[in-house]
TrEMBL record:
Keyword Calcium: no
Family stated for the protein in its record: Belongs to the actin-binding proteins ADF family.
Annotated InterPro entries: ADF-H (IPR002108), ADF-H/Gelsolin-like_dom_sf (IPR029006), ADF/Cofilin (IPR017904)
Keywords noted in UniProt: Actin-binding
PANTHER family hit by this protein: COFILIN-RELATED (PTHR11913)
One GO cellular component term noted in the UniProt record for this chain: actin cytoskeleton
Gene Ontology biological-process annotations: actin filament depolymerization
Protein's name in the database: ADF-H domain-containing protein
Molecular function terms, GO-annotated: actin binding
Pfam family, one: Cofilin_ADF
Residues in coiled coil: none
Keyword set includes Protein transport: no
Organism name: Hevea brasiliensis
């Protein structure tokens, strides 16, 4: 901390008092007496944060009747009804517990898209029978955004990456690699949960993605929306670079 004050010291003392008073408290695991099954619980309110209109969600995992993992946080998006708030809350612990594997070809082809621009886009599919994320379609460099949209099934979830070319407000040619999580409203609930629970882990494997987009309807990933996100991201980068370098001249 750059400038700690009295309130910070009071917080430190509170932590020390807590540690001193709980030295005899700990997690006890007795395999002989209890089941070794990990049990998870989750819950969510509805628009508990009136300032931001977001719901508060939390989850907890236990093993041998002892808590091993927990989290309480405001949801990243605004839920318009309680069912969606509960669904979003369920996706978080499912993501923490997900064990979906990733086929080596997924990372290999993504590196070719990023480094060599060998592909315009890649569509990924979860093969439930083998519990792996695999490649469903490779878009050739000459294909465009309409071809990409057409490659996504209307009623099934998918992951995808797209190498998006655009022109900035300064009339400079740029490109951004988008990661798109496609989860149409009409897809099966099981599929939605499976893709939601594996998204973060899979996304982390794709080193080089610059913009992430989630869509439940084609209108949420239209060409104009993607272009606006790309320009906004580039403008933010330009602003940060300018702030880091500081003014070129000082009067």
């Amino acid at each position: 901390m750059a400038c700690p004050g009295k309130e910070h010291w009071e917080t430190v003392k509170w932590i020390l008092r807590y540690l001193k008073g709980t030295t005899n408290v700990g997690l006890t695991f007795d395999r002989a007496k209890m089941s070794d099954i990990v049990i998870g619980y989750m819950d969510s309110d509805f628009v508990g944060d009136l300032d931001n209109m977001r719901s508060l969600a939390g989850y907890l995992f236990t093993l041998f009747r002892s808590t091993i993992s927990w989290k309480v946080t405001l949801q990243a998006a605004i839920a318009l009804f309680i069912t969606k708030a509960e669904y979003m809350a369920l996706a978080e612990p499912a993501n923490s517990a997900s064990g979906m594997a990733i086929h080596d070809e997924c990372k290999l082809k993504f590196m070719e898209l990023k480094a060599k621009r060998s592909y315009r886009f890649i569509v990924f599919k979860i093969e439930e029978s083998i519990q792996k994320v695999t490649i469903e379609k490779l878009g050739q460099p000459q294909q465009n955004y309409d071809d990409f949209i057409a490659s996504l099934p209307a009623n099934e979830c998918r992951y995808a990456v797209y190498d998006f070319d655009f022109t900035t407000n300064e009339n400079v040619q740029k490109s951004k690699i988008f990661f798109i999580a496609w989860s149409p409203d009409v897809s099966k609930v099981r599929s939605k949960m499976m893709y939601a629970s594996s998204k973060d882990r899979f996304r982390r494997e794709l080193d080089g993605v610059q913009v992430e987009l989630q869509a439940t309807d084609p209108s949420e990933m239209s060409f104009d929306i993607v272009k606006a996100r790309a320009i906004k991201q580039q403008s933010l980068i330009n602003y940060n670079l300018h702030a880091f370098r500081g003014p070129l001249f000082v009067a």
